[in-house]
Protein 1
Amino acid sequence: MSAPKVVIVGAGFGGLAAAEALAGEVVDVTIVDRNNFHTFLPLLYQVATSGLNAADVAYPVRGIFQKQPNVDFLQATVTAADWDARTLRTETAEGHTVTLPFDHLIVAAGATASYFDIPGAEEHGYPLYSLADAIALRNHVLARFEAAAAEPALIDGGVLSFVVVGGGPTGVEVAGALAELFQMVLTKDFRRMDVHRARIVLIEMTPALLGPFSLPSQRHARSELEARGIEVRLDQAVASVEPTQVVLKSGEVLPAHTLVWAAGVQANPLAAALDVETTRGGRIAVGTDLRIPGRAGAYAIGDVAAIPGRDGGLLPMLAPVASQSGRHAAGEIKRAIAGRPSKPFHYRDKGTMATIGRRAAVAELPFGIHLSGTPAWLAWLGLHLLFLVGFRNRLSVFLNWVWSYLTWDRGPRLIVDQREARDARRLEAPTTPHR
Ligand SMILES: Cc1cc2nc3c(=O)[nH]c(=O)nc-3n(C[C@H](O)[C@H](O)[C@H](O)COP(=O)(O)OP(=O)(O)OC[C@H]3O[C@@H](n4cnc5c(N)ncnc54)[C@H](O)[C@@H]3O)c2cc1C
């Protein structure tokens, strides 16, 4: 008899934890992901703001499982499930359809941005949900400075105005990191331009930044951002977005050529394509044991799943929730194979953190321990290093951080436009026969 087939959709925090928890078991695990790498999403904003290299925050999935013989990998996008045949339909990058049979399935496809149907937000906004998003934002930000250097008159029209929408941890981190990039580095790179004319506006529709944090942490974040010259606008919402301006619901028009969208989040659209029950934010409804109701042997974990918390609400979309639920789903599969009953999933909350910039962060830990400033920043740095995948990545991130801290310099400030390579190939390809 062949070993039971376990398919894991997504090589994020949840998918990796589930596969690792199945090490040594007599199961045949296939991880399927549209990318051939795992992305450490919490550090994406540092790639977007030239703090880190793209390769520092990503790691090839095959490399992670080199020493786990029961894990295989398929680079493909899952598009649908056939629950009767117990197969997944996937599409490779080359456009081929590959059908994946499974005995047990873990859906760990994560989340994506939600634009709340705001006109122009998806078209012109820059989200931060993938490595490609981070590189696109870095290219765009740096290209605005080059455009302003070439044509200073553009500054009056908002070429150096950057609107960040969403006052949660991602918005706060992006705004703080942009301010440091401009003040620490671009002032030296663009010596003949008045970089201080660059403007960062952080817009949040509720009355507070960092909603789930305590009042002192919220105040600390705001004062640190304002000390870095960021305009914090609370109780304000975006009405529409155009390439060179952002219109607020109040009617105010902000000339800005860049809008970073850190406001809304929803489950990956795969949840809707799988023919399963979905709930708030498009997340897959699951029982307390993470099983998908009516779909035998199928589990949903992490951001894509609506996991019930102890207080009756849903667990937040956070990396520890994804990892812990991934390990639990793996445990459920082991129990199902052994014929043992299932167990409910209990999330152990180890706290939340957000960083604002150099020696500025907030951390809310269990037992009411709240840190801010340098201690919170050091805790944030240490934890992120600890959870990064791969020693090489840890070392590289550590060296980048030490270098930035000591020299006030930043890492890669490269405008690498993928279209450029395609255009070059097109120009090189002869369109008329050689005479
Ligand atoms: C910018 C940013 C900063 C964050 N900062 C923090 C933080 O500081 N602390 C914290 O705890 N959390 C943070 N989070 C949240 C945290 O990263 C997520 O909760 C966590 O990544 C969820 O893990 P996951 O495994 O559910 O999904 P993900 O890690 O998102 O992984 C999903 C995987 O599924 C793959 N996938 C998606 N659709 C398909 C498909 N159809 N077919 C094949 N593969 C597919 C994707 O390529 C991806 O690899 C942050 C998130 C973002 C976006």
Note: The first strand starts at residue 5 and ends at 9.
Protein 2
Amino acid sequence: MAYLSAYLSLFYTTATMQFAVPFPTATVDYHLESNFDELHRLAPPQNTIIITDEHVWELHQERFRDYRCLKVPAGEAHKTPETILDLARQLVSLEAHRKTSLVGVGGGMVCDITGFLASIYMRGLCFGFVPTTLLSMVDASIGGKNGVNLDVYKNMLGIIRQPKFILHDLSLLDTLPEAEWSNGFAEIIKYGCISDPRIIQTLSENNITFYKRRPEQLASLIEAAVNVKNKIVNADEQETGVRRLLNFGHTAGHAFEIRCKLSHGQAVALGMIVACMVSEQVCKLDPQETTRIISVLERYGLPTRLEFEPASIMEVLRMDKKRNTDDVDYVVIEKTGKACVKQLSFELIEQNLVRFAAADHH
Ligand SMILES: NC(=O)c1ccc[n+]([C@@H]2O[C@H](COP(=O)([O-])OP(=O)(O)OC[C@H]3O[C@@H](n4cnc5c(N)ncnc54)[C@H](O)[C@@H]3O)[C@@H](O)[C@H]2O)c1
């Protein structure tokens, strides 16, 4: 992926895989293609506490043996204020103080709770992330959003605050279940659709097994994905404009996730197909591009068809809006790599959901 070096050269500070991305409020040090041992230098054990979940602890505890470590039960159901309070009390027992750093070692759930806890404990501690899922490497650890769910409301309590560093050790992915690889690829495909057609081209030539066997290719792909998210977040940290492009596939996707008991990645994959169909109608996306995106989703183990009731999905979409209007801000693509937000009527979205429910992509 020769194009990557040119694209990334703007950000590199050294010839190694470290680069600093300036944000309006903070600078995040990236250590991609690094090694877990590097954590000793970035966050020395004597003043660092690691937060992780029980799965990651069971699989990788050897790596944290020098650190004090707090564990939470794994899974979205535990991304709650109760978990935060429980951890805060444990920090008090460990006599954590203003100079203590927290490091989240885990998937997006662990990154979210670590960033949130670190931001509010004693009005703010330093924190860093070692993401251990593909999704958290390319998405959840980046952008400074940290939060927890409140009852049924996702990410209702939270804060925007950047970590001091993000460290990738790709060997942590060796234990990742196949379904979690697919979830991560859904977001990478999204980045390709909205901002970087070269990602879609590369993905269309490879598959999950290829990336598992070739860490250097996986690292290049992750860098391209990290770059897309950073470029967008950098331009709009507080989500008033361009950051909304990251919601491509997430409007219908969120409704599919709630109503059809799908993982987030599966739901977003299906949401992206609906968004492509809408894009064909409102900004003349070439249907062949939709076909190519569908085949890339299939290649990475993501669903491309679903039996569902459009009316029940529309119900969630209207609820999500929380306003009594007839239209919705919807992310569409004019072509692969070029996205924009359009105000569209619910009626038009419903027509496309009906089309999608009846579609046979094969
Ligand atoms: N803050 C943001 O900007 C942002 C963006 C996207 C997603 N998120 C959040 O991220 C979360 C989803 O992230 P996720 O998909 O990483 O989920 P997750 O953190 O729940 O991890 C998924 C599963 O994989 C396990 N796991 C983690 N690393 C592993 C490894 N190396 N080997 C084996 N198993 C491992 C976890 O224990 C868990 O069971 C959601 O809470 C979502 O809201 C946040």
Note: The mean pLDDT is 91.
Protein 3
Amino acid sequence: MKRPRIAMPTVNPSAKDPLRALRRKLHRRPELSGQEIKTPEFILEYLQACPPDEILEELGGTGMALLYEGEEEGPTLMFRCELDALPIQETSGSMHASLVKGVSHVCGHDGHMAIITGLAEKLGEERPARGRVVLLYQPAEETGEGALQVLKDPRFAQIKPDYVFALHNLPGYPLGAVVVREGVFSIASRGMIVELEGLTAHAAQPETGNSPAPALSELLMEMPQLPEQLSFNDFCLLTPIYVRLGEKGAFGTAPGVAQLMFTLRATRREDMQQLVEKAVEKVKKTAQKHDLNVNISWSDVFESTESDAESVTLVTEAAQQLEMPLQQLETPFRWSEDFGQFTLKHKGALFGLGSGEKQYPLHHSSFDFPDPLLPQGVNLFYQIIQRLLS
Ligand SMILES: [Zn+2]
Ligand SMILES: [Zn+2]
């Protein structure tokens, strides 16, 4: 379905800093993963005076890509930002705080979008000399679904980027510091959902049923120990995140069902594979021991994000040219980013842009993207384009 063009309140172009105004507008109107309908409209509205050569709407669901063609043949560069916000009630108390109850841009995706839109403005005024630039506004990053959806869209398959780049703001790092790492930048993670089924009974005669309680407590205690018991090459972690047994307040019933959820993390792909195998084996053996039916499913699957040497060098040289402080990341971040789906198939880099040492952490209810980072992000991406496409 084509998105209807509705007249939106425009960003005042005479405002001192229109990009900052756009960032704040996006901050005020956050949308959850997979429901990003208005956000792409706000972006297009902003770019009305300098449109791209082509717009791919509803890409991979609610995503959008803007295409800019150079005059001569050359490589295709993709720069990606995220459209989605989080189901968190904002507590920043700022003038531009979220107007949507229980939803907020506390991962800074509003800032990332404004940076890519600043880049769009520059490219709208002057196309690259050669090759092609694709600006991707990806949906549903927070759920780990969006990148895959975009990759599966046949229109994206035709883009075939030669390089893919993305940045994420990093609280706790000096404002404007460029943080790079060759190899894994952020690690892989996935959610494991375990459903155990025994037999309910009267709570007065539990021996006539089969409660999953003993299996549940065994798994809760023993699953997190798996990474220590196995020989992994790198960092591995298994964290219980949720349990449920029987029905709340059903004092007359000995439970027959239980549900457990775990998050698995690993730096290396082969370690994640081993951890998954061992976790499944452990759950199945425990269920068998207690004569329970078991069902295992997976959610929020994120690949590790890997940056190749050439792309990291490009980011590094661009930062040096702009005299931005550089920092090498020693060990990969323990969080995950679905940009890993792109680096799995394409050459590229995910890097960090410090959002201040005193900044609240990502996903903190008071996090607010610092506006002074906007021009720095735009210039850094633009410098990469200059290096490859001029
Ligand atoms: Zn996030
Ligand atoms: Zn994020």
Note: The mean pLDDT is 94.
